[in-house]
Write a structure and sequence with these properties.
The complex is a heterodimer of chains A (164) and B (437).
Chain A: H1 8-143, H2 147-163
Chain B: H1 2-22, H2 36-44, E1 49-51, E2 59-61, E3 63-67, E4 73-77, E5 82-88, E6 95-101, E7 104-108, E8 111-117, E9 127-131, H3 135-152, E10 164-167, E11 170-175, E12 178-179, H4 184-210, H5 217-238, H6 242-264, H7 278-294, H8 298-305, H9 319-361, H10 365-436
Antiparallel strand pairs in B: 1-2, 3-4, 3-12, 5-6, 7-8, 8-9, 9-11, 10-11
Helix pairs in contact in B: 1-10, 2-9, 4-5, 4-6, 5-6, 5-10, 6-10, 7-9, 7-10, 8-10, 9-10
Amino acid sequence: MELFTPDLGLVFWMFIAFAILFIVLAKWGWPVILKNMNERAETIDKGVEYAQQAKHQLDHAREEAQKYMEEAQAKQAEMLRDAAKMKTQIIEEAKAQAGVEAQKVMDAAKVSIEQSRKEAELQFKNEVSKFSIEIAEKMLRSQMKNDEAQVKLVDKLLDEIENN
Amino acid sequence: MKRLISLLTLLAVLIPSVAFAAEAPEEQEQKESLDVKEVIFHHLGDGYGWEVPFSHVYRIPLPVIVKAEDGKWFCFSSAKLTEVTVTEDPATKEKHEELTPVIHEVEKDGKTYRFYLAHVSEHKNKVVEIFPLTAAEQAEVNAEAIRIHSEKGGDAHHVVVPGFVLVGHEYYKEYRPFDISITKNVLALIIASILVTLMVMSVARYYARKGMRAPRKGMGFIEMLIDFIYTGVIKSSLGAKADKFAPYLLTCFFFILTMNLLGLIVIFPGGANLTGNIAITLVLAVLTFIVTNVLGSKHYWKDIFWPDVPMFLKCPLPIMQVIEIFGLFTKPAALCVRLFANMMGGHMIVITLILLIFIFAAFGTAALGTSVVVSVAFTIFMLLLDVLVSFIQAYVFTLLSALFISAAQEGGHHEETHEEEAKNDASAEVAPTAEVK
């Protein structure tokens, strides 16, 4: 049967045609295509993954913003509270300081008043003693105008000394 | 679809009735009976020229390359082997063109070489080198022809005598030269190769030009096919070794698919029954056989010559070995025959369906009309089916090749991992001693 006996010429050409086709495609065709297809598949996979991540992030952005806002508010409140606390503290401190200062000033005033009082007292004493001496002198002078009075006094003094 | 069916039914009913009315009164006598076998084999087989549409006589001439008996090479146009003779019917003045083979004589180095397209010979429809016989030899061959005719019967004027070819009414001694002519099939092969190259390289070049962007339309379809075969067949059966065998398997698939589909086109660039020719499928099967066995692993060969079966099956009598070695050859043989038979069968059915028209024509015009409609409908159906079969057969060939190759690789893969493990163990053992030193 003609159909079932392979023709040598055709076998020869088929072999050559296939060999050339295979060499050409295996060198310049398939590796390029397969490499590109694999790369593209990977890129697409990565893109999908990235998009999913982005979507995920977008979905959670509102929540996150809310969270940040709440945090910020809490922080603000805390800061306000801190500031108020600090204010009262400063005022308290200032008050205390002022009290201490006033006390100091008052003490100093008291001391100086006391001192001036003492000085005045001393001066008054001196004045008084001076006046009394002058008065005594004047009285003495008036009493001691006669000799008799003088002798009497001397006697008296001498008696006193003797008694002592 | 419904409309199509109703239209066809209508045609089937109408045409015969119209034909009855128009039936010619005089019955034309058929000059020659239709040789169905001849027509089928002519369409399925190879040829030195390529038929052009609507003509049985004129053909695209192709180069004939033959090596004569004394070792000299000859190359000439196939048009020189045939001649168109025009005969005029004296009664009807109708011209009838016929293609008849002629002896092509070539003078080379003072010697005359004669080539002839054999018809009544053992090498039917092939180019043979012929040598004239002397009168005595002629008588001897004629006597032999009469003897053969009395034994086998048949046409008394066209007796095939082994070793001789009938030219006109004389026998010549024939020699079938080594023939690497660019026949119809070879040209179709070249066209298919160029088409596959263009298809694949267009996609490859597209990547070079456009980088990562996915190709569209036709190129996208080719890429889809490549991906279908690469991930669906090659990657799934060969795994890590896919890239090593992918070029061969992909080339196989696209070459077979292109040849299959080209075979279904009736006019010039197609029409050659390539994959329905056993020479083509034989080469493909042999290539798969070579790839499978040459690149097969040690484990694969061990499984053939010393399989893991009870000893009595392999030792005194090598039963398993014989079966395995037999299996080595049956696998590619099945590949070869499957593709060949499927494609040839499809072509044969289509041709037979068309021939039915000419067979039924002998029974009158009514039968002719009906058979035209039925045959054409069935032919279209068969051709559509053949498009599917073309794809399936290319796929099956690639799939089975991939499976055979992976079967020859798999054992080796395990062995390699074992070896790697062994190496790792060895290095682990070496390491402490090195530390001690």
